[in-house]
What we know:
337 residues; alpha/beta; Rossmann fold; nine-stranded mixed beta sheet; two-stranded antiparallel sheet; 24% helix
Amino acid sequence: MRAREVARSVAVVAVVAAVVVAAAFAGGFLLDSPTQSEAPSAPAYDANELVAEPIDDSGSVTAPAGDESKTVVIDVSHGNGVSENSLQPFVDALVAAGHEVQLFGGGSSSTIGAEPGAAFNETLRGADALVVASPATSYSSNEVAGVEAFADAGGRVLLAAEPPTTTSTTSTVSIPGLTSSSSVSASGQPANLAASFGVSFGDGYLYDMAENANNFQSVYAGGDSGVADGVGDAILTDATPVTTGGGASPVLTASGVSLSSTRDEGSYAVAARNGNVLAVGDTDFLTSGAATEGDNDVLASNVAAFLVTGDKEAGAPAAPAGSSGGQTGTGSTVVTA
């Protein structure tokens, strides 16, 4: 029995020794293997390529002074997605050049029994330019007619829009003795106003996965004349295309971009002009933090010049028959330096 146990112990020791020697040999072989000492063949990320390229934001927005002060009305009475603070660079430029900026927030008209929008039209009579940006509700037929008359009389109009967020739909009810009607509008777009001037806004946003301003939804746009003069690389974020018809013509274009609603790649107009009316499928380029990026300062300055270089006839749109035709100014806030 003892001899058998000794033999078994010797065998176990021999096996363990063999395993240790084999492991050491294999380890040495692996450590000496050239495949382990060489660099991996898979390409590594270049850290420099992961760093966002800085966007030039050293520009400034300006406006021409002119021989006389002009009054620019910014509508905020339709739930518009802009404010004095958000448009600070644009507003400051106009005020610094000696022009008056009014924020119209609504209010009652001086005319008893006046139609909806009478106060809005009264304010336009004393204005030279109107800014309509990202409204949440549609404009009444009376207001649309007022803006048309305002533009026909030489007043300048800026219509700025964003991709629609929600659709507001109301119905028409007709009962003997009681009739009510309403309109359909996309939130963020002055659709019925734009349609009066041969312009419509898109139903999606433009994007570029290859050439962008550090965000695929921040696309570059440019042009060579009018409000696009000197604009090579304006940066528009969440921009929507502008479709033209009638007397409207494109003035600013984003090329090599795609539309979110269709995925179609191509060149899209993002701004168009029809006489005294300018439509832009973006509002961000006028706002703090974006107005000085890229060529946005040039674009915003050109838009400011467009607004204050018109020659509007006094008193348009005309007051309804039987009204005093005076401007109450109710609901308007005058912005000062």
